[in-house]
Each structure stands twice: as structure tokens, then as C-alpha cells.
Amino acid sequence: MPKAKNTGIDYEKLIHKIYTELEPNADVRFNDKILGRSGIERQIDVSIRTKIAGHDILIIIQAKDHSTPIDIKVLGEFVFVVNDIGASKGILICSSGFSRSLIKAAKEYKIDLFTAHDASNIRWQTVIKLPVIRETYACKVEFRWAMKFTSIIPGYKSNLPKSFFDSIWFFEFNTIDGNKISMQNAFLMNWDNDPIYREPGRHKMILFDTAFFKHEAADFEITNAYIDYTLQRKYHFKFVSPDEYRGIREFETGEFRASHININAQKISKDFGDWEFTEDISKIAAKALHYKLEMLDLGIVKINRFRQIKNKS
Questions:
Q1: CA–CA separation, 139 and 141 (whole Å)
Q2: Is the pLDDT of residue 262 over 80?
Q3: Rounded CA separation 7/199 (Å)
Q4: Residues 172-209: tens digit of each pLDDT
Q5: CA–CA separation, 93 vs 174, rounded Å?
Q6: Partners of 245 in the β-ladder
Q7: Rounded Cα gap, residues 105 and 112, in angstroms
Q8: Against a cut of 0.85, is the pTM above it?
Q9: What is the Cα–Cα distance from 27 to 22, expressed in whole angstroms?
Q10: Are 224 and 148 a contacting pair, CB within 8 Å?
Q11: Average pLDDT of the residues in 14-38
Q12: Domains contained in the chain, CATH given
């Protein structure tokens, strides 16, 4: 059976999808038609329309899914189209890259050069290594709270089972405003919202002022719930390959701009080999895209959380 001809449409659709994901607030169009100053209607593989400070911005993209690098002739034709329709920016994307003469000329004409990639298609795969920072926290935790109860039964004595105290960290209490909260959730909210709690040393954290629960014939009130804990922290890092990815790579610098990334968090959290210890994570954390694996050992429970961090580039 003869091999189907590569029309390049699938590559164009991939690029349209990538830019739609990268710029969700822009008007990204596939196979657009734009009338040029010459009076000729130009076919544009992908166009992007947006506004900056109230000004209309038009970016056009020409895609080439070729088996060999494209040459300067393609650039010349594209530059003419960019000027004819008055585009703010032109972008050339080719699966096999660009000739040296095209790269040099593209700089003069301010045409950006990229390749587009998708892990699900073997023809468009690439090698990606993304930094993961592992923050390991060890805590020695002591709980403090006051508890009282009332009952409609005269002489009723509280008889809370041992299992209640064993699981009190996860127990959902009722709050004054009618919501539910557990000590663990209160801890994690404070942990996430105030970086002071993640600094090594001794801390006192207020979990909640007042909460309630019922047990048998009694109404219980918990007040002044807080924990004292001493925190130790270590940093490790490694570079991992994502299980799924989609995005564009700047041809000269090699910088990859991901529109979709998926890393198996469970696999990473169980991987304790080849991590490199570091005392300074500032250079890694400054990267536009990196991941953080937070491993929190509270003694009574171990919490692993995996997060994608996107910094403004």
C-alpha cells in the first residue's frame, strides 16, 4: 500500500493547538485568509490576533513539516507576505529546522524560528529535561488545645475513644460559620499562605480558635488549637523527562515553551535515586518552568505534593 502523502496539515493543526494553549486569551485562527495591500488574499497557516495597551497586534505563522531543513527561498516568500498584510510579527516553524543562510537572514528580517513538538507523534518528538526541586521537611510536632463539653444528660461523663485522639489530625470539626475543617487542612492552608512556616527552626502555628463536634450525647468545643513544631529542611534536584508534552522550541537557543506538560508525580515521589543535594535552589527556582516535590514528614503523617511552577519569563 503506498505511503500517504504528507500534506503538512497535521503539523499546522498541532501548531494551532499549541498557540491556542499558550495564548488562551488571543484569537488564534487555523488556515486564515487575510487580504494584503497588493489586493491578493493570503493564506495563513496560523494567525494570532491580540491587543496590547489597546493596540491591535497580528502575528502570522508559516508551518513546514519537511524531512530536510528549509532554505532561504521560503524565508523570502514569507517576508513578502508579512509585509503585504502588515503583520506585527512573522514566525517560521519547520519540523526539520532551517539552513544556515536562512537563520542569518531571519535575524535581519526579525523573523522568529521555531520547531513544534508533540510526544504523541514520533515524528515530532524531542528531548526535554525539566528541573524538579525536592523539598524534604522533617517536623517534630506537639499538639495543644483546650476541650470542654456539655450534655443534656445529667451527670454524663465524656468517654471519647482512643481512636478519636489517634485520628484527631484528620477529624473534620464544625466551625462557627458552618464550615468543616481538619487540623491537617488548617495546617496546610497556613503552610501554603505564609512562607515563614516553611523556614527551618521552631514555630507555633494557630490552627483555629474555636471548633465543635458531637459525640454520643455530648457537644464538644475545641478552643485555641495550635501546634508547636521544629522544622528541618533539605533541598535536592534532578532533571526528568515528562511523560507528555506539547510545545515549541526556539531553534537557536533550544528553549522549550510548553503548552502542555504532564509528569508522573507518583513515580517521581517514589524515586529516591540520582537526586543531587544543593543548598541554593535560586537558579533552578528562577527558571520559567520547573516542578516542586514537597515531602513533608510530620511524624503522625507523611504528605507528598507535586506542583508545576510557572514564573513570568
A1: 6
A2: yes
A3: 56
A4: 999 988 899 998 899 989 988 988 898 999 999 999 89
A5: 57
A6: 261
A7: 11
A8: no
A9: 11
A10: no
A11: 97
A12: 9-124 (3.40.1350.10), 129-242+264-313 (no CATH)
